[in-house]
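User: My advisor, Dr. K., asked me to get a structural model of this assembly before our group meeting. I'm new to this, so sorry if the format is off. These are the inputs:
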Amino acid sequence: MASDDDPTILVFACNWCSYAGADLAGVSRLEMPPHCRVVRVMCSARVRPEFVIAALSRGLDGVVVLGCHPGDCHYSEGNYYTRRRALLLKELLEHVGIEPERFQLRWISASEGAKFAQTITEITGEIKALDGRREPPPEG
Amino acid sequence: MEQELREIVRKLLEEGAIEYFIGYAEGFEPLHTTPCFIERGEQVQALVWSPLCPYNLARYLHQMKNGAGKVGLVVKGCDARAIVELVKGNQIQRERVVVVGIPCQGQVDLAKLEDAFEGVEAVEGKGDTFLVTVGEKVHSVEKERLLREKCFSCRHPISFEYDFVLGEMSPLVYGSESEFAMVEELERLPVEERRAFWRAQFERCIRCYACRDICYACYCQECIFESKAPRWLEKTTTPLDNQTYHLIRAWHMVGRCIDCGECERVCPVGIPLRRLYKKVEKEVEQLFDYRAGMRVEDLPPLVTFAAEEPALSSRQDRSER
Ligand code: SF4
Ligand code: SF4
Ligand code: SF4
Ligand code: FES
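Assistant: The format is fine. Below is the predicted structure of the whole assembly, which you can bring to the meeting.
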């Protein structure tokens, strides 16, 4: 189960689907790692890549962006932009040595409480596995 | 070519067609030219051209945004891409710029030149060689030995309409190596080694912002790094702040960097910035089939999308589930 050396993960969840999914996971009392901080945004496209860069550079262990499934964005097309940005950003991060596990994009609908819990558990596990072989993040 | 250029500029100024002309002039010593601004016909003698004219003069077009008059400038084929992007980004109007294309056939890397010769007085291009004048002697050197790295992947915009050309504007074709070879070399390293590589580079950065300030594409009225609320960066040059700076700037170069190489050339501590921006350029090309500065009509990659994106789907599985 959760321990203090679990990685801290910043989760951006869009208001209309994924945040509701997270909420559902909560009210259903599903088990999941406690070291995740959920930030509600109106749409996954609200997450500026600069947020992700700043969070990871400051030493957060991972950033997850959650949005509505393609075709379901409340603003019709927000998540299509998110998809393009995320793919490119991941390449840039990887190029400077930030492992792809540390930045992930997933689609979670309002009814997918279980998927939310499972996603967070899975990603926490992946990052924990990396941390085992990593030196500490830069100081400062 | 210089004479022809001077005549064009003299005429433009005397007819009142432009307010001033941006070109290259002799600098403080033979190997350094400097950007110059010509305002009157009698000043045109100052204009020079040689393989020692690195500056991307389109950088100076930012300042005409709020004026009304016309400005002229001379561009190498590669720099013309900056004009395409500035027009696309509504920073300038094409009809307010008089563009003189100069058929550049390769620029010299000063470090390579200084390694090979001492006391160089002049360099001139001739076919596959550079003629290097040292005292009484003129050495003929294969271009390959002295070219700037970026000139090995010389690219001109496909459909650019120059107002004047001083010869045939065609790219220099050299070398068979992929222009992304240096990026691919890094890609082959394990992720920890890449991290160590970039950390060592970023550590040296003194955040003088020269790389941003020389960049034609950094025309934001308020740069994110100057913003006080929110504040993205501290003034300190900790590894944390430096990494944030470099990644955010690389992100801002998506679809805009034309690989003029000016950032890397001006960096006082020798950070290989092209290896960062070329990565972005490579992915933009492979994922979105987009190259900056080629055609004004091309839509930048992040302001558009398709519901089905086959080019993305092979990699998507990794990030999206
Ligand atoms: S020019 Fe070099 S030292 Fe100055 S901010 Fe850019 S990378 Fe850092
Ligand atoms: S670094 Fe970014 S915010 Fe700053 S001027 Fe360049 S593009 Fe604009
Ligand atoms: S990032 Fe560097 S190479 Fe790219 S356009 Fe700006 S100055 Fe030129
Ligand atoms: S509202 Fe959910 S992704 Fe746009």
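One thing worth pointing out at the meeting: Residues 113-131 of chain A form the longest helix (19 residues).

User: Perfect, thanks a lot.
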